[in-house]
Amino acid sequence: MPDIVETGSGGIDFENWICPMPLRDSPTIVMGHGGGGAMSGELIEHLFLPAFGAAAQAELGDSAIVTVGGVRLAFSTDSFVVKPLTFPGGSIGDLAVNGTVNDLAMAGARPLVLSTAFILEEGTALVRIAEVAAAMGTAALSAGVALVTGDTKVVDAGHGDGVFINTAGIGVLDPGVDIRPELARPGDVVLVSGEIGLHGVAVLSCREGLEFGTTVCSDTAPLHGLVAAMLATGATVHTMRDPTRGGLAASLNEIARAAGVGIALDESTIPIPAGVRDACGLLGLDPLYVANEGKLVAFVPAEDADRVLAAMRAHPLGVRAEIIGRCVAEHPGMVTAHTALGGTRVVDLPAGEQLPRIC
């Protein structure tokens, strides 16, 4: 934990920090700090949490669990700065709803209400904003959540990309539901709900005008119905995450480190669609690090894996679900993958993000 020294004027003397790289070598924010990888984690650990001091009460999951009047609630907030505003399969509007709904769902909560705040750039066409707002309304109705409060701010022309959105959400947890990254344990089976990498490639192809022989569409979708189907089996679910920024690799590394376990993947079982594989091969990207917006990864005891997998495949958003690996006691905090060539490689936490501004 870095030492933070206040100056006489009440500010913070950053020169006396003892935090590790990259913060000392990067005195300003860079794109990697928003990528959900190692740099994001260091920014939180070595800047925000020390600065918040005793006011910080966070377990650093997708949602915070709070108890109000004897009822356990999940609370989450997220901001969306995707560029471009629309892309094959979705837009910033439905992404803002689904992203926050999914953060609540990863704690096993039933999403109830959302707030929405718009930061609009001066000069943006009203018809463009109306399209985004309509997409949010449609997504909220589809997810069964209400948009109950919000805010609007406008920034000068040239100081935004048309529309930025923040959403916060509240959901309720049923008694006995306890799903957290640190609960993963050796012997757990790792499942993914379907094909990975679709969202990141869809945004990239639209942003850069790239063609890969087929249209790759974002997988943006609300996952709480799939989660409900998994929990309805009566199986124990230790951990769930939706692998957004940093992709599957970032989520698995976060879980491995939080739980102090190793994770061993079988690359041949990870569902990667041909369009994503071709695009990543062309661009030199690793599909495990490409963002998703409608997928989840779950850790369940081995004896429950088959019935959870069956429930996932019976749901429209889990038809392509697969078992992709296991938790192991060896190499705690590390993710490895058995390759098609028979070797093993380390799947490390990305420093920043292969594809910035994808959510």
From TrEMBL:
<feature type="domain" description="PurM-like N-terminal">
    <location>
        <begin position="62"/>
        <end position="172"/>
    </location>
</feature>
<feature type="domain" description="PurM-like C-terminal">
    <location>
        <begin position="185"/>
        <end position="331"/>
    </location>
</feature>
<dbReference type="InterPro" id="IPR036676">
    <property type="entry name" value="PurM-like_C_sf"/>
</dbReference>
<dbReference type="InterPro" id="IPR011854">
    <property type="entry name" value="HypE"/>
</dbReference>
<dbReference type="Pfam" id="PF02769">
    <property type="entry name" value="AIRS_C"/>
</dbReference>
<dbReference type="InterPro" id="IPR010918">
    <property type="entry name" value="PurM-like_C_dom"/>
</dbReference>
<dbReference type="Pfam" id="PF00586">
    <property type="entry name" value="AIRS"/>
</dbReference>
<dbReference type="GO" id="GO:0051604">
    <property type="term" value="P:protein maturation"/>
</dbReference>
<dbReference type="InterPro" id="IPR016188">
    <property type="entry name" value="PurM-like_N"/>
</dbReference>
<protein>
    <submittedName>
        <fullName>Hydrogenase expression/formation protein HypE</fullName>
    </submittedName>
</protein>
<comment type="similarity">
    <text>Belongs to the HypE family.</text>
</comment>
<dbReference type="InterPro" id="IPR036921">
    <property type="entry name" value="PurM-like_N_sf"/>
</dbReference>
